[in-house]
């Protein structure tokens, strides 16, 4: 039997109401704050910002295929590690893509995307219980994992002073995690799939302490019902020209993905954490 979890329709009512309330409040108060502290020349440079980076991420990914509080009839399961038990490498070089459009004196729109695929063939080091099926120690498995993260968010600078900005972000994001594996005794490939569409709220900060040195920090929190994700990034950017710069930063992406407890959801839970340094090139025009 091919275990598959079809992602349910999300209804993030509370988070959506909070986001709408926050947006309405900011739309009324932000122009006053921005005008009070804004220096007109702060955004006199290029408006379109592209960055491509290489993230050296250390991963810790745990899965429990089979939850006791689910109505899905796939069987119970115990938590196992994709790295320790399934042999997937912990360190990965992940390409990241980003685009930011500066709008007016206080707004911005950003899109971020990353995707990573890992493969391995290994013998399990201990007995595993997956959807009610025991996988004995020494069983050879060949797992493949594909993990992706996408976010689209608007930002509004509530405070501006020279080249320093502090503000809020709001939007949405997608986290998709698929694990495929096949046991020697099975003639089919099993799938564990979690896919979430989550509302996003966050904060951002940027400053220029020196003529060619910039500081950027951002934290985005995505959550609804039983799934959540947090993306933290902070770094320094050397920008000798308005049109090109190099950034060194620390990124951390962590969260939990659990299908809603209904007959249409699956009953596996995924917990993930990716963290490490990232180097990127920024192009602007």
UniProtKB/TrEMBL annotation:
Residues 1-34 form the signal peptide. It comes from the Bacteria. Keywords: Signal. This is Outer membrane protein beta-barrel domain-containing protein. It comes from Rubrivivax rivuli.
């Amino acid at each position: 039997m091919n275990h598959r979890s079809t992602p349910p329709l999300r209804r993030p009512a509370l988070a959506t109401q909070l986001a709408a309330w926050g947006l309405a409040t900011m739309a009324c108060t932000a122009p006053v704050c921005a005008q009070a502290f804004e220096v007109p020349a702060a955004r006199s440079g290029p408006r379109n910002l592209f960055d491509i980076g290489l993230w050296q991420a250390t991963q810790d990914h745990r899965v429990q295929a089979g939850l006791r509080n689910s109505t899905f009839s796939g069987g119970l399961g115990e938590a196992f590690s994709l790295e320790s038990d399934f042999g997937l490498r912990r360190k990965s070089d992940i390409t990241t893509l980003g685009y930011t459009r500066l709008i007016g004196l206080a707004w911005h729109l950003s899109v971020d995307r990353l995707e990573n695929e890992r493969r391995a063939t290994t013998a399990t080091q201990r007995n595993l219980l997956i959807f009610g099926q025991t996988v004995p120690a020494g069983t050879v498995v060949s797992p493949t994992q594909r993990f992706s993260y996408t976010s689209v968010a608007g930002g509004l600078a509530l405070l501006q002073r020279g080249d320093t900005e502090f503000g809020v972000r709001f939007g949405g994001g997608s986290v998709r995690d698929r694990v495929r594996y096949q046991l020697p005794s099975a003639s089919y490939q099993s799938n564990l799939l979690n896919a979430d569409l989550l509302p996003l709220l966050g904060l951002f900060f940027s400053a220029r302490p020196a003529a060619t040195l910039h500081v950027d920090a951002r934290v985005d929190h995505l959550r609804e019902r039983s799934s959540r994700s947090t993306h933290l990034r902070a770094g320094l950017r050397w920008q000798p020209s308005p049109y090109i710069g190099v950034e060194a930063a620390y990124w951390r992406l962590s969260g939990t993905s659990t299908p809603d407890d209904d007959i249409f959801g699956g009953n596996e839970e995924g917990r993930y954490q990716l963290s490490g340094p990232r180097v990127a090139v920024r192009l602007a025009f």
